[in-house]
Amino acid sequence: MQKNQFRWKIGGAAGYGITATGLVFAKACARGGLHIFDYTEYPSLIRGGHNTYQVKVDDREVFVHDNAADLLVALNEETLTLHLNELEHGAGILYDPAVVTLDKDRMASRGLKLFPMPLMAIAKEKGEPIMQNMAALGASFALVKYPFSFLETAIQDTFSGRKKDDQVSLANIAAARSGYEFIEKQFASVDFPYHLEPLQDPPERLVITGNEAIALGAIQAGCSFYVAYPMSPSSSILHTMAAYAEEFGIVVKHAEDEISVANMAIGASWAGARSMLATSGGGFSLMVEALGLAGITETPVVMINAQRPGPATGLPTWTEQADLRFVIHAAQGEFPRFVIAPGDVEECFLAAGEAFNLAEKYQTPVIILLDKFLSESHATRAPFDISRIAIERGDILSERDLEGKKDYRRYEVTASGISPRVLPGTKGGLHIANSDEHDTYGYSNESSDNRTEQMEKRLRKVASAADQLPQPKLEGTSNAQVTLVGWGSTKGPIREAARLLEGMGITVNRLHLKHVWPFPVKAVASILRGARQSIVVENNATGQLFGLIREMTGIEANAKVLKFDGRPFYANEIKESVQEIIKKHA
Amino acid sequence: MLKGQQFNTTHSPTWCPGCGDFGIWTSLKNAIDELGLEYHNTVVVYGIGCSGNMANTVKTYAFHGLHGRPLPVAEAVKLANHGLHVIIIAGDGDTYGEGMNHFLTSMRGNHDITLIVHDNQVYGLTTGQTAPTSEKGYESKSTPQGVIEEPVNPVLLALSAGAGFISRGFSGNTVQLTELIKKGIQHKGFSLVDVFQPCVTFNKHNTFQWFFRRVYDLDKEGYVPNSWEKAAEKARETERLATGIFYIHERPTYHGSLPQLAKGPLVVRPLAGIDVRKVFKDFI
Questions:
Q1: Among the CATH numbers 3.40.190.10, 2.30.110.10, 3.40.920.10, 3.30.390.50, which is that of A2-204?
Q2: Which entry of A47, A288, A570, B27 is 20 to 30 Å from A224 by CA?
C-alpha cells in the first residue's frame, strides 16, 4: 500500500479539456492537504494534437514531476501508444474500451492493471461527450479511495465561479460522480495499491503557476500599467493581469505588437506608472531596441521573458533556458541592467516586487527570466506573505523638492550615478528624456567629454549593485562530494535529484543563482573554489551559465549536464548523469 | 515678446535655412501659447529624423524616443496620466513607414493625443532617400530608377482607421497650421495634423513654390468637415491639394473607456494599502 504518494497522468486530443481536468485533479488533492506539482504538454494547436497533464501528489513538498505514472487515464489510443513506457509494474490504465482497444495479454505481461469503463456513455448520459474527462476524474479518485467531496467542490469552483446551482457545473459533477460510483461497484475487489487520504485538518494552500504568482506579486508591488502581446508561454500573465485589472485599478493593454509593448511600458513608466511587460524570446527580440531606449533614457521598466525553445518559432509550447546570454547582452551599446531568474512559484511572487524596486532605484531595465516549465506548472504553496513585498520607488523629486532650485538636471552627474527623477506634470522639472546621447539636462550632445561622462554615470549605477543584492548561498550538506549549480527553473529538479543522490550515499550541495546579472562574482567564485566537484545543470545546448561562470570568475566547473529537447529535467535524469560523471572522474 | 517665444529653450533648431520644419516649430509653439497650456502639463513625444530634432527646442516635458515609435510612448503617457496634454512630433518615415502599425492602431483606439506629421515626401536626415509619401516615380538615392510603390495617402488611411479629427496643413501657412494644431489638441480623441513641409535640400520636386501653386483652404471654400464620404473625395484630389480639416467625428476616447481611470489619472493612485490576498481564493 502506497499512501499519499501518487502520480496521475491523463492524455487525449487537444479540445478534450485535458488542462481543465488536470487542474481540478490538482486542486482536489491540494484541498485535502496534499502537495502537488503538475506539468502539461501540448502542441501549438487548438484541436487535434496530443495533450497530456500529469500531477505528482505527495504528503511532503513536491519540486518536480516524474517521467512515470501510477495511473494513466487514456482518453484515446494515442495516449497509450505514447506513454505506455512510462508505466511501471503495478501501474493502472483507465480507459473506455469503446474508444481504446488494447492488447490485454500484453498489458498483463507488463504487470499493468486495467480499468475499462464506459466513460463516453456516462458523459453522454449526464451531459456532453467532453464530460468523459470528468467521469475519468471521478473514477481516478475512486481508485485511490479519496473522498468525492473534495472533487465535487473543486469542480464546482472551477466551472461555476462558486455558484451552487450552475447547470454546467452540476452536469460535470454528475458525470464525475457516475465515474466514481462505477469504480466503487465494478472494481471493489481489485487491489490498486495507491491510496490518497486527506489530512485531518488540511492547511490552506495555493495551487499556482509561476506566471500566476508573478502576476499576483506584481499587483501587490503596485504594478499599475501592464502591457503585452500574447505569446506562449507568457500569455497567462496577461490573462491574470487582465482578469484583476479593474479590481486593482490597473491599466492592462494588449498592444498591436511587441515593439509597441516595450515602448508603451517605457512611456507609462516615464510618466510615473509602475510598468511591466511579458513576452517570450521572439517578442523579446522585437523589444531589443526599446530595451536600449530604457537604458539611455534611464527609464525603469520590468520585462519578463518566459523562455521557450528557439531560434525563431522553435518549439512554441515547450521549455528551454537558452535566453540567458541573449538578455544579458541584448541591444546595441552598453548600459546597466538586472536579470533575475526565479526558481519556483514563491520566488516568482517575490521577483516582481524586487524587480520594480531595482528598476526604480537604479532607473534601468530589469529582466525576469521564466520558462514554460516554471510559467505553466502548478505547485502547492502556503499563501504568499505579502509583507515580503515592499514598495520602494527610488529618488523622485516633487514640486516642493524643486521649489527654489535654480535649475533641474535630469541626468545630473552624481557619485552613485543615480540622478533623481521628476515625473511629467511636476512644476519645475522640465527635461528631455532623450534617446540621443545627451547632456545633464537631456539636450542632445555629441561632445567627447559629455559622452564619456554620461556613459560612466550610467554604468556607475550598478557597479556596486552586485554586492548589494542578496548573495547566492550553498544549500545542503557542507563539503559535499558534488556541488550542483543551476539557475532559474531547474531549482526544483536539482533539489529532488540531490535528494535521490543523497539517498544513494552521495553527498550533494546546491548553488542556485536567482540574481544572474550583475553576476555575483565574489560569492560564486568563493563557493566554487571550495567545491570538490562542481556540475552545472542547464536546460540548454551550450552551457550558458557554465560559460558565464568561467568568464566572470575564471573558474571552469568540472562538468555540465545539459538538456535541450524542449522538455524539463526529471530528477532521475540529473541523478543518472551525475553518477556517470562521478564514475568518469573517479 | 513674440507669440510662442516663451516656449523656446536655450537651444536653436539645427535645420537647413528655409526648411519647412521652421513653420511647424513656430505653429506648435504658437498653438501651445494661444491655448494657454502650461509647460509642465504638456508633453511632446518626438520620433527620430529632422522633425524629431525639434526635441531640443520646445520648452515642455519631452520624450525623444526611437524612430517610428513615438505613438506607443505617447499613448502610454496619456494612459498613465491623462491630465497631461500629449502631442507627437514625427516624420513621414516615423509615421507612415517604420511606425505604420502604431499609426493605424492609435487611430482605431482613439487615444486622446495629437499627431503632427512632418510630411516632406523624402528622408532628409539620412540624406535623401524615398519616403512612404513620395510620388510614384520619384527618383532618389535609394530609388534612382524611380519609386515603384504607390504613395501612402495619410488622410484616406486615417479615415479608414476611424480617426476622429483629420487635418492637413502646410508649413508655408503658419496662421492656418496654428489653428489646426490648436483644434487638434482641443479635440477629445485622436487628432492627425499631416503637414506638407518642403525639404529644401533633398526634395527638389515638392518645393514651396510647387505647394503654393496647388494648396487651397477647405474652410475658405465653405467645406464642412462632417461627412466621411466627402472627406474621402477631398483626400483623393491630386491636381489641387486641400488643406484644413477634412473630418471631425467625436467618439469615446481610449482612456475615457477605462473604468479604472474614472476616478483620476493612474499616477495619482496610491500604491500603499494594496492587498492581493483577496484573490487568493481563486487559486485554491
A1: 3.40.920.10
A2: A288
| CB-based burial label for A167 (10 Å; 0-12, 13-18, 19+) | exposed
d(CA B115, CA B64): 14
CATH of domain B5-283: 3.40.50.970
CA gap A134, A132 in Å, rounded: 5
ipTM of the complex, rounded to two decimals: 0.98
Mean pLDDT of the A246-266 span: 98
Distance from CA of A81 to the nearest CA of B (A): 34
Instruction: Give CA separation, A395 vs A78, A418, A557, B262, in Å.
Output: 59, 8, 40, 29
The minimal CB distance from A263 to the residues B48, B66, B266 is found for B66
Q: Which residues of A touch B269 (CB under 8 A)?
A: 224, 249
At A116, give phi and psi (nearest 5°).
-75, 140
Q: Grid coordinates standing for A8?
A: 496521475
Query: Shortest CA distance to B15 belongs to which of B43, B46, B55, B45?
Result: B55
Question: Given an 8 Å threshold on Cβ–Cβ distance, is A206 in contact with B283?
Answer: yes
| B72: its cell numbers | 506607443
Number of neighbouring beta carbons within 10 Å of residue B72: 34
The closest CB to that of A257, out of B76, B84, B101, belongs to B101
Q: What one-character-per-residue DSSP string does B151-200 give?
A: PP-HHHHHHHTT-SEEEEEETT-HHHHHHHHHHHHHSSS-EEEEEE---T
Tell me which of 3.30.2160.10, 3.40.50.2300, 1.20.120.1200, 3.40.50.920 is the CATH number of domain A471-585: 3.40.50.920
In this structure, which amino acid lies at residue A304?
Answer: I
Task: In whole angstroms, give the CA distance from residue B241 to residue B234.
Answer: 8
> For chain A, which residues make up each domain, given as ranges?
2-204, 208-388, 395-463, 471-585
Decide if B111 contacts B190 (C-beta within 8 A).
yes
Distance CA B51, CA A104 (A): 77
- Whether residue B257 lies within 8 A of chain A, CB to CB, comes out as no
C-alpha cell at B18: 528655409
Strand-by-strand arrangement of the A365-371 sheet = A251-254, A225-228, A275-279, A301-307, A365-371, A338-340, A515-517
Q: How far is CA B59 from CA A386, A425, A429, B47, B103, in A?
A: 43, 13, 11, 17, 25
pTM score: 0.97
State the SS3 of A139-163: HHHHHCCCCHHHHHHHHHHHHHCCC
Residues of chain A numbered 249-288 and touching chain B (CB < 8 Å): 249-251, 253, 255-257, 259-261, 263-275
H helices, E strands: number in chain B:
8, 10
The top-level CATH class assigned to A208-388 is alpha beta
Please tell me the distance from the alpha carbon of residue A265 to that of residue A273, in angstroms, as a whole number: 9
pLDDT tens digits along B240-279: 999 999 999 999 999 999 999 999 999 999 999 999 999 9
Angle made by CA atoms A40, A45, A47, in degrees to the nearest 5: 95
Contact check, Cβ <8 Å, B105/A430: no
Asked if the domains A2-204 and A471-585 are classified in one and the same CATH topology, the answer is no
pLDDT tens per residue across span B189-200 = 999 999 999 999
The grid coordinates of residue A375 equal 510559467
Task: Write down the domain spans for chain B.
Answer: 5-283
pLDDT one-digit tens code per residue, A273-325: 999 999 999 999 999 999 999 999 999 999 999 999 999 999 999 999 999 99
Q: What integer pLDDT is reported at residue A164 of this predicted model?
A: 67
Instruction: pLDDT band for A162, please (50, 70, 90 cuts).
Output: low
Question: Low-confidence residues of chain B, pLDDT below 50?
Answer: none
Question: Cβ of B275 under 8 Å from any chain A Cβ?
Answer: yes
B192 within 8 A of B44, measured Cβ to Cβ: no
Mean pLDDT of A18-25: 96
